[in-house]
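wait is this the right file?? whatever heres the structure
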């Protein structure tokens, strides 16, 4: 994609485009995970996606809870 910009200062434009790209990538990933078939988007796939995001982004961490952990947390956790 090419843009024609009539400005001498491209830094804020580049920053805005990078930010837009990051948001778009996040929306597309969320859409793909939500719309995927349950047989394709398993809990293991969600764990992989979360770990990949955390590994690629400084300051982001992931904690994975198992069923027993969630049961210990009590009725506030919803199980289907």
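ok assuming it is, sequence goes like this
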């Amino acid at each position: 994609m090419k843009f024609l910009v009539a400005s001498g200062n491209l830094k804020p434009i580049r920053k805005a485009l990078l930010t837009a790209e990051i948001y778009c990538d996040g929306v597309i990933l969320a859409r793909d995970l939500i719309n995927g078939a349950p047989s394709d988007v398993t809990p293991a796939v969600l764990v992989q996606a979360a770990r990949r995001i955390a590994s690629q982004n400084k300051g982001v961490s992931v904690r994975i809870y198992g069923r027993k952990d969630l049961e210990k947390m009590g009725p506030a956790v919803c199980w289907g």
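Residues 42-80 form one domain. so i think its the right one actually
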